[in-house]
Protein 1
Amino acid sequence: MNFHRWTRHAALLLATMTVLLSGCTTYVTTQVTAFSDWSGSDATRTYAFTRTADQQNNLELTTYERIVANELATHAFRQVDAGAARYLVGLSYGIRSDMVTVAQPVYYNPWPAPYWGWGRPFDPWGPWGPYGPYATAYVNQSYPVFTHLLGVRITERASGKEVYNVTARNAGEESSLVRAMPYLARSALSDFPLGNGVVHTVKIPLDKNGGASNEIGATPAAAPAPASGAKAAQ
């Protein structure tokens, strides 16, 4: 899976903030980009998964197809045999690791306490209290960051025409693509169908068990106006 340089830098910046805030983060943030020529109706949303030659007999992909199928079902898609399907759905996915280095503040006391004879009368600690005056230094600390990617491509079976292509990407400390996949799939299809060229950010809260919550929030980015079938995520 190739990543453009600017995309990689943006992902690393997002991942750095994710790592630093991981102690209080209660949601997963995913960037979604869609290209669309969708004109189907609910009545025609039958589909089958399709695989490339190197994806055959792949148990990992089978797992991801089930996750995506659950999300497609929420948008009136019905999985059928390939010969009876109006659409073919293909998946692409990947994970990559990087190291990010962040300057972290470290506080230290250049004047060891106690400070006898300083400050107010009968104040053995002086004007700085029992811990003395603190100075600040910075130490570089490195963190592993993992970028997860899911692509969902929908084509018309009869004509081979691509009608929808959406990519979901997030980054953080999670080293398992399996655990990241439910968030990627839900984000990718959270507002189906998006208009052509739409880019937005989806935030999925974590439930008390650490799984994906049913609540989804989407923050649109600057992009062309969505198609008439698109709706804003709540």
Protein 2
Amino acid sequence: MKNDSLFLSAANHEETIDHFTRVAKNYEYTRRVPVAESVEIYPIKYYGAIQTGIHQFCRLENKVLINCGTFKLVNIWKQTPDGWKISRVASYGY
């Protein structure tokens, strides 16, 4: 949860997030706030963990939040020698 919070803080403020994961060049900055009581984490033996939950999600366009809603999320975390890295992110239920 600490790494997820650091990742979201960087992404929500349009800072570099390469420290956590490689991001496509066309990454669209968003604002995502997890609903803390909805978060569940499941270990994946020999790999890392799956994080599921609900988040409030908005797209940031011209410094204005648009298309806000509450949706489901899945983050797949990989434990590496350098620490935890997000390997996949999915937001669904739009």
Protein 3
Amino acid sequence: MRVDPSTDADWRRFAVRLVTVAAGLLAGYLALALAVDPYDTGRTRLLARDGVRPQGPRTATASRGRDPAYAGAIIGNSHVQLVSPERLRAATGIPFVQLAVPGTGPGEQLLVADYFLRHHPQARALVLGADAFWCTGDPALPPLRPFPSWLLAEDWARYLRGLLRITVVGEVVNRIGWGLRAAPRRAAPDGYWDYEPDYLRLGSPDTPERVASRTRPAPDEPDPGEGGPHFPAAARLHALAARLGPGAGLVLVFPPVAPATRPRPGTPRAAAAAACRAALAAAVAPRGRVVDWSGDRPELHGPDLFFDASHYRHPVARRLEADIAAALGAPAAGADGRRP
């Protein structure tokens, strides 16, 4: 079969033009995305409007975590989500931002902490909630759910690759519309998300399913994925603690769980949980303080204190906040709670 040379040349020219146009469109989109900065990472300031539109904490963390208005951060998942940054500020004088991201484990939370410290080298306090997910034996500390680690990345290459996602393209458009409004609605700058109304909309805490979830005993044997004598998150936590300035407070919180769901004393699961807490506590020693609410306390017994096995309600959160403030050296009663 004979090929027409002119036709072959036409196809080559078409392919070159197609690639050129595609490259131009890609470069144009990346330039627009960088200019718009859809998640307010601060990498570019061409659209000079702080904050982001209302959205989930997975993406809003990039804006909140770099905000210079805050000198302390609360980091974890929904098990410390109810700790109020405003109440901690009133008790300690340190302006706190709540950076808890529901459904995350130690790998994602340490990324958030690293991001916060990069933008706050003179941070005054860091509060970390370490729940049972921190006891994994997997050294990779893989994410429990999809997490936009590219958004918190320090290098430009990962950030640029992240901008190529379809969801980000939509957010670029949303950001432009949001930025053009005179007074757009903004996500809460301090990141506080009270989950009580959300739970109550799903039904009463006294439904049989919820009662069963907070009264079901834990199995005696630990899960296969839980760490044995080695807990990789502890080493990463120790490295993070070493980055804090000499005057910064560090509090490691072991969040409360419904009393009936705690591992039974003397079981392998209870021993594994105790070993994990000991390793994590050693990782922040000697400068860090531990607020341990994982045990059985009188304050945790009552019909209206938990929604499920691990999500407590406001009365428990207020007591936990008081212990965190005390660990940070809260001023005595009558002192100025907002000292400079």
